[in-house]
Amino acid sequence: MKIGILSRNQSLYSTRRLIEAAQQRGHEVAVIDALRCYMNINSSEPEIHFKGQQLSGFDAIVPRIGASVTFYGCAVLRQFEMMGVYPLNESVAITRSRDKLRSLQLLSRKGVGMPITGFASKPDDVKDLLEMVGGTPVVIKLLEGTQGIGVVLAETRKAAESVIEAFMGLKANIMVQEYIKEAGGADIRCFVIGDRVIAAMKRQAQEGEFRSNLHRGGSATLVKISPEERRTAIAAAKAMGLNVAGVDLLRSERGPLVMEVNSSPGLEGIEKATGKDIASMIISFIEKNAAAKRTATRGKG
Ligand SMILES: Nc1ncnc2c1ncn2[C@@H]1O[C@H](COP(=O)(O)OP(=O)(O)O)[C@@H](O)[C@H]1O
Ligand SMILES: [Mg+2]
């Protein structure tokens, strides 16, 4: 097959591993920087050009779209979809998962467990907003944040009110969430491919920190997950419509709670923590599904 990887930089660990795995399995691979693509949108023959050449003949695209290039990256992926190329994750599912509010609303509709969460833009009654989620301590998050930046633990009502007012002053949309203390500064990253969790790791925040992000100094180890955690992760990926997803769970007294669903989950932390060749599992999934799609399309005539 000819597989395109939408990535800005081919020296990134995940991109490198996907190239390696695809080549090992006998595929042709090209890394495409979405920002440098330009497109011709028309009804008869949609085109994508890159470095002066028309991109054609691709069987599948692996989107590795960074948070900062979601808008244009998804537009390029959508163009590939219009050309009949199989996307590992569909552009519409990626767009969905990038919006934390929309994601949690979708998960709640499917009955997937999550921390009690309030959303606000300009709340006229901060006290009521805090009571709505069960009072302090609360976690306050910027809707657009990643890597733990913009996630604050407010232990008292006074602290919570100040933080909410400060974020409001910056005209930021915020999320106010029940603090899951019993998670003990850890979360579980479940790596979903298709309808299976193929690897899981526990990320533990460093001493004195409640955010377990590896970018914030958290450490990752192999973990065995429960059947309920497995079901929750698969249900969350399915609710978002993602074939490949990193589902982050908090272990709470009332069972697993989904914090977020990542549509371009990194491979480095999870491959190192579990020793699994996840890149090859992804390519193998593409082999099965891109081929099935081609047959189905042919069938339709
Ligand atoms: N409601 C919560 N209760 C306990 N810990 C939380 C809660 N929300 C977030 N955390 C901790 O903070 C980290 C970062 O939060 P997250 O929502 O994943 O933001 P980001 O998108 O920036 O990673 C999580 O990995 C988790 O360890
Ligand atoms: Mg996170």
UniProtKB/TrEMBL annotation:
<dbReference type="GO" id="GO:0005840">
    <property type="term" value="C:ribosome"/>
</dbReference>
<feature type="domain" description="ATP-grasp">
    <location>
        <begin position="104"/>
        <end position="287"/>
    </location>
</feature>
<dbReference type="Pfam" id="PF08443">
    <property type="entry name" value="RimK"/>
</dbReference>
<feature type="binding site">
    <location>
        <begin position="211"/>
        <end position="213"/>
    </location>
    <ligand>
        <name>ATP</name>
    </ligand>
</feature>
<dbReference type="Pfam" id="PF18030">
    <property type="entry name" value="Rimk_N"/>
</dbReference>
<dbReference type="InterPro" id="IPR013651">
    <property type="entry name" value="ATP-grasp_RimK-type"/>
</dbReference>
<dbReference type="InterPro" id="IPR023533">
    <property type="entry name" value="RimK"/>
</dbReference>
<keyword id="KW-0436">Ligase</keyword>
<feature type="binding site">
    <location>
        <position position="248"/>
    </location>
    <ligand>
        <name>Mg(2+) 1</name>
    </ligand>
</feature>
<keyword id="KW-0460">Magnesium</keyword>
<protein>
    <recommendedName>
        <fullName>Probable alpha-L-glutamate ligase</fullName>
        <ecNumber>6.3.2.-</ecNumber>
    </recommendedName>
</protein>
<feature type="binding site">
    <location>
        <position position="187"/>
    </location>
    <ligand>
        <name>ATP</name>
    </ligand>
</feature>
<feature type="binding site">
    <location>
        <position position="260"/>
    </location>
    <ligand>
        <name>Mg(2+) 1</name>
    </ligand>
</feature>
<keyword id="KW-0067">ATP-binding</keyword>
<dbReference type="GO" id="GO:0046872">
    <property type="term" value="F:metal ion binding"/>
</dbReference>
<dbReference type="GO" id="GO:0018169">
    <property type="term" value="F:ribosomal S6-glutamic acid ligase activity"/>
</dbReference>
<dbReference type="InterPro" id="IPR041107">
    <property type="entry name" value="Rimk_N"/>
</dbReference>
<dbReference type="GO" id="GO:0005737">
    <property type="term" value="C:cytoplasm"/>
</dbReference>
<feature type="binding site">
    <location>
        <position position="248"/>
    </location>
    <ligand>
        <name>Mn(2+) 1</name>
    </ligand>
</feature>
<feature type="binding site">
    <location>
        <begin position="178"/>
        <end position="179"/>
    </location>
    <ligand>
        <name>ATP</name>
    </ligand>
</feature>
<comment type="similarity">
    <text>Belongs to the RimK family.</text>
</comment>
<dbReference type="GO" id="GO:0009432">
    <property type="term" value="P:SOS response"/>
</dbReference>
<keyword id="KW-0648">Protein biosynthesis</keyword>
<keyword id="KW-0689">Ribosomal protein</keyword>
<feature type="binding site">
    <location>
        <position position="262"/>
    </location>
    <ligand>
        <name>Mg(2+) 2</name>
    </ligand>
</feature>
<feature type="binding site">
    <location>
        <position position="260"/>
    </location>
    <ligand>
        <name>Mn(2+) 1</name>
    </ligand>
</feature>
<dbReference type="InterPro" id="IPR004666">
    <property type="entry name" value="Rp_bS6_RimK/Lys_biosynth_LsyX"/>
</dbReference>
<keyword id="KW-0687">Ribonucleoprotein</keyword>
<feature type="binding site">
    <location>
        <position position="260"/>
    </location>
    <ligand>
        <name>Mg(2+) 2</name>
    </ligand>
</feature>
<comment type="similarity">
    <text>In the C-terminal section; belongs to the RimK family.</text>
</comment>
<feature type="binding site">
    <location>
        <position position="260"/>
    </location>
    <ligand>
        <name>Mn(2+) 2</name>
    </ligand>
</feature>
<feature type="binding site">
    <location>
        <position position="141"/>
    </location>
    <ligand>
        <name>ATP</name>
    </ligand>
</feature>
<dbReference type="InterPro" id="IPR011761">
    <property type="entry name" value="ATP-grasp"/>
</dbReference>
<feature type="binding site">
    <location>
        <position position="262"/>
    </location>
    <ligand>
        <name>Mn(2+) 2</name>
    </ligand>
</feature>
<dbReference type="GO" id="GO:0005524">
    <property type="term" value="F:ATP binding"/>
</dbReference>
<dbReference type="GO" id="GO:0006412">
    <property type="term" value="P:translation"/>
</dbReference>
<keyword id="KW-0464">Manganese</keyword>
<dbReference type="InterPro" id="IPR013815">
    <property type="entry name" value="ATP_grasp_subdomain_1"/>
</dbReference>
<keyword id="KW-0547">Nucleotide-binding</keyword>
<keyword id="KW-0479">Metal-binding</keyword>
